[in-house]
């Protein structure tokens, strides 16, 4: 068990560019979550996958954001036409199927800076 | 809908002193509550969780929390602070909506430990 991994750890991009982040959950965890954390705030939910199905998208996830989880394994989060307000830490988490009591395991995050 | 409020965005204690971080929750159903810790530029690590059963929950690194339904509280304590406890701490409640689930976080409390 190597934990949840995210790539890249840091991304600096110019406003208007597209960026894509990757998350590899703990193997055999069928639930995957994306959160966004801005400075001085707690993580805010963005979206939830159960296997390959995206079951919920937060209203925070505008049309410029898209997330996928092909084949229920890794997930990608793409932001198109980035804006300075997109600067944040993007966190991925996973949890196993089964009891609702299971916690979510978080990755190290991808810190995005839009200049 | 479930939510949490963390009282005090910054807490400062001396090494060896008691640590008390406050969390109050709002939930119309029996809550599942979590405390996570975040070190600078890292993801979140679970300290402890309450789902059902014993209301005094022990976690890692000497932390514990007590679920008090009458006070709608889930405060985090540690008898003796260590320098390595300096970090940001987040209280969270699990929310279920329409087949989806997510964690709803408080805004966090930054703990400083003075030598």
Describe what this molecule looks like in 3D:
The complex is a heterodimer of chains A (115) and B (115). With 115 residues, chain A is mainly beta. Chain A has strands at residues 5-7, 10-13, 19-24, 31-37, 44-50, 53-57, 65-68, 75-79, 88-95, 105-106, 110-114. Helix content of chain A is 0%, strand content 49%. In chain A, strands 2, 4, 5, 6, 9, 10 and 11 form a 7-stranded mixed β-sheet that branches. Chain A has a 4-stranded antiparallel β-sheet with strand order 1-3-8-7, with no helix packed on it. Chain B has strands at residues 3-7, 10-14, 19-26, 33-38, 44-50, 56-58, 64-68, 73-78, 87-97, 100-105, 109-114. The termini of chain B are far apart. In chain B, strands 2, 4, 5, 9, 10 and 11 form a 6-stranded mixed β-sheet that branches. In chain B, strands 1-3-8-7-6 form a 5-stranded antiparallel β-sheet, with no helix packed on it. Chain B is mostly beta strands and 115 residues long. Chain B is 0% helix and 59% strand. The chains are: A mainly beta (115), B mainly beta (115). At the A-B interface, strand 4, strand 5 and strand 10 of A face strand 5, strand 9 and strand 10 of B.
Core attributes:
A: 115 residues; seven-stranded mixed beta sheet; four-stranded antiparallel beta sheet; B: mainly beta; 11 strands
Helix content of chain B: under 10%
Name the poorly predicted regions of chain B.
none
Instruction: Give the N-to-C terminal Cα separation of chain B.
Output: 41 Å
Helices of chain A, by number, come to 0
Give the helix proportion of chain A (percent range). Answer: under 10%
Assembly state of the chains shown: heterodimer
The coarse silhouette of chain A is globular
> How can the largest sheet of chain B be summarized?
6 strands, mixed
Q: Unreliable runs of chain A, pLDDT <50, ≥5 residues?
A: none
Tell me the total number of β-strands of chain A.
Answer: 11
Average pLDDT metric of chain B: 94
